[in-house]
Design goal:
It contains two helices and 26 strands. With 251 residues, the chain is mainly β.
Length: 251
């Protein structure tokens, strides 16, 4: 199978049907105007990824430490295990409960590991492969896979649930996830941030004033530049979660 080029809003978008399917399905040419590329609808319905009793309450969860500068505002719980350092609250505001080590934080990390492995292990006959910059795309419900890194760096990214508020989106990323400054994730067609799951093989970085949606499950660290916001969860298995005047609302 030939290697796919990055799907962008200024090039032809290609998707590959994996597993039992070998047919290549090519989406319409990307528009140079305001109309985004729409990925063809997948036939396979994905079940939600369970975060368990304790990880599900976390807006932020880290392994080594959590640091914040500026007027960070978190709605949801904050957990840390096995690290011990949480800094920047106050002046940051936590509208939830802080758990440092202890049984709840430890169980939350176990829940996260289980959820991460679940998302990473998903497969189906019509999984869609993405690569490079996915800004400008509209993703419909289903399972997506990148064998390297993904970025939202040229145009905004839309999730369209096609009128089904229960629709689940799972994005498997082998390496890094990046959103550059000012980029946005947009929800359409009844899509919910709580039904979007990003399984990140290394670390995730969100640029200044970027607006992101979904549960971020990163193997290493998660970093937010000044003014970036997240509707969802920032869950780092091993490394730190670094904040800089951000708004994080658990979804």
């Amino acid at each position: 199978m030939k290697k796919l080029k990055a799907i962008t809003a200024t090039a032809i978008a290609s998707v590959v049907l994996m597993a039992a399917c070998t047919k290549t399905n090519t989406s319409p040419a990307a528009s140079t105007g305001t109309n985004p590329v729409v990925i063809p609808v997948q036939a396979t319905t994905q079940a939600s990824v369970s975060l368990g009793t304790d990880a599900s309450t976390m807006a932020v969860l880290a392994g080594s430490d959590v640091t914040s500068t500026g007027a960070t505002n978190i709605t949801g719980d904050l957990g840390l295990s096995p690290g011990t350092s949480v800094g920047g609250f106050p002046p940051g505001i936590l509208n939830g409960t802080k758990y440092i080590n202890g049984p709840i934080a430890s169980q939350a990390k176990l829940d996260l590991t289980s959820a991460y492995n679940d998302a990473a292990g998903r497969t189906c006959t019509d999984i869609v492969t993405l690569s490079g910059n996915i800004g400008g795309l509209t993703l419909t419900p289903g399972l997506y896979k990148s064998t390297s890194s993904l970025a939202v760096s040229s145009g905004d990214l839309t999730f369209d649930a096609k009128g089904n508020a229960s629709a689940v989106f799972i994005i498997q990323i082998a390496s890094t996830l990046t959103a550059t400054s000012g980029r946005k994730v947009i929800l359409a067609g009844g899509a919910l941030a709580s039904n979007i799951f990003w399984q990140v093989g290394s670390s995730a970085t969100f640029g200044t004033t970027s607006v992101f949606k979904g549960t971020i499950m990163a193997m290493q660290s998660i970093s937010f530049d000044t003014g970036a916001s997240l509707d969802g969860r920032a869950l780092a298995r091993i490394g730190a979660v670094t904040l800089a005047g951000n708004i994080i609302v658990k979804q």
